[in-house]
Protein: Heme A synthase
Organism: Bradyrhizobium erythrophlei
Amino acid sequence: MTGVPAQAPQIRAVRWWLVSIAALIALMVLVGGATRLTEAGLSIVEWKPVTGALPPLDQEQWTQAFEAYKTIPQYRQMNAGMNLAEFKTIFWWEFGHRLLGRVIGIAYLLPFLWFMWRGFLAADLKRRLWLIFGLGALQGAVGWWMVASGLSQRVEVSHYRLAAHLVLALLIFAAIVWTLRRLTERPPLSVSLRLRLTGIALVVLTFLQLYLGALVAGLRAGKIYNTWPAIDGAFIPSSARLFFDVPWWRNLFDNTLAVQFEHRMTAYLLLVLAVLHAFDAIRSRAGAAAVNGALWLVAAIILQATLGILTLLNQVPIGLALAHQAVAIAVLTLAVFQAERLAGRQIEQPHKLALPAAQTG
């Protein structure tokens, strides 16, 4: 074993803290998905970072919250006639989503400050963790920016802002997973530059696929073209149907057919790249860790694609849709694992962490 034995409990504490934060973010992404699928995201029309931590506590407060919801277009055009009990159902989804955001903020900041006070964290690790905290604070603002887009002119949030909100959440998640991996001391792998580059490409392509998936969700594009492998009657739809809007690039983001087609094609590309990456790892004898990581990633992508097809064919039932989203998080986790595994130098070796203040000198 390497490292300083006296530091092992401190390192374990930091690791478990990061594991818990990653788990909470994954849970929040799934609750956010359920909030979107139940059309609950606009049920709370105010952003109160402090006082909003409490739900309505009596009948008068519930009535006020319901009356506020009645003022926005979504109620008038989609839910007119909804009663208070029905409103409470969608309210609790959105409230739970926001409450989880507050819990994550507290669960991140307080232990982080304590670890710094005790001297558990090296300088470069502290900088990285402060950056992640800053991204988390930005995520709260982006969440409200997203909700605000659906309060006056629309019956749903902007799919652009929804995609930005989801991708930022998963970027924070990936940064925590990467940092957590860097805290694990293990022998470096001797692999080719090509294998390292394809490992990074898999992460980038996974993020692109997640972004496109958010656009599909925001446009409700999964509820149409519910056939596979054909879409709109062909494996590759006609260009006239894919690019009818002007300028042409708007179709990439606003045309439901084009967005769903992009999501499908990126899934195929991701699977092909993952298979080639695994084959390269095996052929080049990159080591058991690299080979197993590549094979697990291929298996997760196949499962994800299967769930995506089933979700599409069944017109997005909430159970399948959330399973599809959960496995997407698993795919991202495995892709980050693999890229970090192949990256080489470990930034945060356990023996490089500062000793607790009581042990210095």
About this structure: The chain has two domains: 1-186+346-361, 188-345. The chain has twelve helices and no strands.
